[in-house]
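Sanity check

After download, print the first record. It should look like this:
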Amino acid sequence: MPNNNHNNKQFRPPCVPEVKVGGFWKPIIEVVRKKSVEVLYDRCQAAGTFEQIDVDKPVPELRIPLSEGGVSMQMFWDSDIGKITEAYSYLLADKRDAEIEKKIDALVELYKKLQQPDGYMNSWFQRMQPGKRWTNLRDTHEMYNIGHLLEGAVAYFQATGKRDFLDIMERYLLYVESVFGKEEGKKRGYPGHTEIELALVKLYRITSEPRWLKLAGYFINERGQQPHYFDQEARARNEKENLNPSVTHEYDQSHLPVREQDKVVGHAVRAMYLYCGMADVAMETYDDSLRVTLDRLWDDLTSKRLYITGGMGPSRDNEGFTEDYDFPNATAYAETCATIGLAFWAQRMLGFGPDIRYADVMEQAIYNGALSCLAQDGQHFFYENPLESDGTHNRWEWHKCPCCPPNISRLVGSIGTYIYSCAESALAIHLFCQSSGEFKIAGGRVTISQETEYPWQGKVKLQLTKCEANEFTLAVRIPGWSKDTTASLNGQELELEHTTEKGYLTLTRDWQTGDTLELDIPMPVRKLFSHPDIKQDINCLALARGPLIYCLEGVDNKFPLHRVRIDETAEFTSEYREDILGGICVINGKASLALCGDWDSQLYRETPAQFCDTEIKAIPYYAWDNREPGEMRVWLPLTTASQQ
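Expected structure tokens:
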């Protein structure tokens, strides 16, 4: 049961307009604004997505065939429109654009016409397969579509003040509420792909309407209860067997009631979105039982199932998890949306209070496994994010399941909301980026600015440029990967060992306008090694600097990358290069390179290969495949005695 001993320690992210972002993220935001969202809109239009919601046009043809199980990715098109609307809205919050608003308003009008008198609104089940609504919650993404449309409507309202889309979605949700629940005559169903839960909490937060929080809580608490709803539903469809053997109850995390779950299993994106919804409901209802479960699942993921890049889900078969310590590199699925989902989940866990075990992972996911999705041209994308490539894995323009491009676009567009979070009398800084934010804290307005060249340099200057608040707490993350970080307040050095709580420099005082907190976070090159049970990476190392994981790419290293060996005592240097990939820090160092010139036609022999010294150059993992196609490797084998 919820704990009603409210402690007023809830930390919520700011709204997008409250934070202005510059520095490292500014050019990425601009490429999303000028290229990515326009590409997303145009490609949806070309695919026929908008035709499917336009009741004034003939029913469109089936563009994506049905699978053997009767599912087409065309069923999910409403969700793409929702995510595009959300991404557009975050950019509008920063800079209004009449042409963009005209596009969204036109889509809203199409949905207004599509919506039925009872409130139902789904382009697939109204136009393509009428009469089949709510007959297969497990597979057809009906509620997933609602969730993304709702998130888009909330974001558009916050950016523009326009309520039409929000009103449409609230009518839809009143209908959903009338269909699902524990009350007599209602269906005891819940979504196969979680998403509506966290969207409902967003709606609750802007409307203060408790029915939306109650509905989110119902979907969370009903999941996995017996008799199992998906089994009942399948029998009602006369489904004699599951035509897709990977779609088990573990696949959609409905194998157990949520509080009994202790392993991160199944489809990775569904898992992350479920945990987001659980965290939102736990925070808003003070439900400690959900919080305990979330911590248990977090520990399982981060200790046994998370790639060094923040990616997860090694298997293509279920787009998700397999067994503990299973981390193939070349075949890693590591779907972009899953890593973005991890960033969402980490942000929500930070709602319970500053803690570097969440913030470090959030940074790891955003800067590496998520950002790698987006090409520097803003027009090409990764769905899968392997940690090794022979040069044939490249970003694509479009995908039959185009969920990742709008997801990375909405993450980038809202990046400011991951930097800060606020409680009633506290401000937390989780990420470092040239930025400024204005927040209401302790009864007054507080404006804070960050000056930094992070992630290339570790010097950060935080200044209160306006402070009208009473006494409050400022909590600033000291990254867990950092060593010998120093801090000063108004020029006076601070003793971090006495002022740090859960990895955050925590100061409570009567702050004044002009107060300045400075951090110096050293960023040497780090050599990372994997757990001995990760068989794919045994006797290998990876390179990191600051929050960034690095990789070797063929364009910089003119030899087959599999021949490289690294001495674990090798020293590496870094330098900022304006002429590479728009300006990045590269890592330089020495390695050994296996020679094959003396093997003649032999395939095997009694003496090992000879090695020579060579120079290697590594770039941030997120930036690979932006130049000519070629090999890439994150994990690099160590030398043996005979190779030194």
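If your output differs, re-run the checksum step. Summary of this record's structure: Residues 1-8 have pLDDT under 50 and may be disordered.
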